[in-house]
Amino acid sequence: MSKIRITQVRSQIGRLKNQKRTLEALGLRKMNQTVEHDATATILGMVNKVQHLVSVEEIK
After folding, report:
1. Whole-prediction pTM value?
2. I need a surface site. Which of 15, 21, 35, 48 has the fewest CB within 10 A?
3. Which of 28, 23, 30, 29 is nearest to 46 (CA)?
4. What residues contact 59, with CB distance under 8 A and at least 6 apart?
5. Rounded to whole angstroms, how far apart are CA atoms 34 and 10?
6. What is the pLDDT of residues 19-58, one digit of tens each?
7. CA 51, CA 9: separation in Å to the nearest integer?
8. SS (HEC) of the chain
9. How far apart are CA 19 and CA 14, in angstroms?
10. Distances (CA, A) of 59 to 13, 32, 39, 56
11. CA-to-CA distance for 27 and 23, rounded, in angstroms?
């Protein structure tokens, strides 16, 4: 299974509560914090909800 690296690039201040909770569920709590996850359908759906706040890159 492929892995993805997710980095929070925009602040969660002023965002909707569900977007803040999605970031927290992904493990992102601070700006420029990076986490790695398996590229499952669940994780990709969460990333899609906050795609304007994060950057995503595939890990080989």
Report:
1. 0.93
2. 48
3. 23
4. 2, 3, 4, 5, 36
5. 12
6. 999 999 999 999 999 999 999 999 999 999 999 999 999 9
7. 10
8. CCEEEEEECCCCCCCCHHHHHHHHHHCCCCCCCEEEEECCHHHHHHHHHCCCCEEEEEEC
9. 10
10. 29, 18, 10, 10
11. 6
